[in-house]
Amino acid sequence: MNYRSVWLSMFLLASGCAQVGPATQVFTPATADARLSESDAVQMYLAGRDLDPVEGIWNWADGSYQIVITKNNTGVREDYKYIGILMKSRVNGWRPGQVKLLLDGTPSQEVLDGIYYGTNQMENRMGFTMPDFNSIETSSPIYMYGEPLKVVLVRSNHRVARSSGVDTLASTDTTLAATR
User: Fold this and answer.
1) Does residue 131 form part of some domain?
2) Residues above pLDDT 90, as percent of the chain
3) Is the dihedral of CA 10, 11, 12, 16 positive or negative?
């Protein structure tokens, strides 16, 4: 085997190692089927401070997951500024409190670098875009018909309203359209 073949083999092996480890549990609900409600997520992660544009409650457009994205002060992967914590899932094997994604800023305000934990809960390095205030897009590590599956996160229609110095959940909307 020549030098070029060895180098190519090592490169392909390293490229295939983008998936690193399983999703981490940030908090454990009282029961296995518990869900983190929007009002609880607001109180635990968003209330009482100015929020960055990426922070809030986000739903996968196909309805498979709901997460809260907040500043990462959980002690998990502190090299990432934001953490997406699972609130609800329609996918077997996922539990509320697990990390679904990690995000970090880039020089561009519309682009984020991060890690996406796929349906198999393995870590995938990804690029994310925020084309507008209410959506985040990436491509899933899953391919359909030879093309990467587009993943769209839609901001929940919640608003944190300030009344008498107390943050409260003003409204919610969980109706979403499926997106390919």
Assistant:
1) yes
2) 42
3) positive
